[in-house]
Amino acid sequence: MIDHVSVGVSDLARSARFYERALAPLGLMRLVERPATIGFGKAYPEFWINLRTSMARVPADTGSHLCFRAKSTADVDAFHAAALEAGGVSDGAPGLRPHDRVRYYAAFVLDPDGNRIEAVTFPPE
Fold it and tell me: Residue 52 contacts by C-beta under 8 Å, 6 or more apart in sequence?
């Protein structure tokens, strides 16, 4: 249903370094680079960061977040660790999150601009 998504970033080089490291465990890499935007994906740029030089830090209560699918719980763990090492802030440690309809394993981080990013997988029962 969704072809691609993007987030605004205040420092393109800093955010590119962050996302290269954070998304690598999920198999995503930098595919396209333009003066004010960078596209990440596996074979096609599905996720973009766009330079917004006057952008303020994203307020915590905006409610927006992006979620990337991981192949395994180990990949979710690796995403979280890599994101923290790259300057992100934990917004939910890796762990199982059982709910009424679905059981999933996820981790949440805030990127350097405050964008809320998640990695998720659905382990077998």
Answer: 8, 9, 10
Residue 95: give the domain boundaries: 5-53+66-121
In angstroms, the CA 43 to CA 31 distance is: 8
DSSP 71: S
pTM of the model: 0.93
DSSP label at residue 62: G
Q: What is the mean pLDDT of each run of 10 residues along the chain (125 residues)?
A: 93 98 98 97 97 91 90 98 97 89 92 96 87
C-beta neighbour count of 23 within 10 angstroms: 23
CATH for 15: 3.10.180.10
Distance CA 5, CA 72 (A): 23
Q: How many residues does the chain have?
A: 125
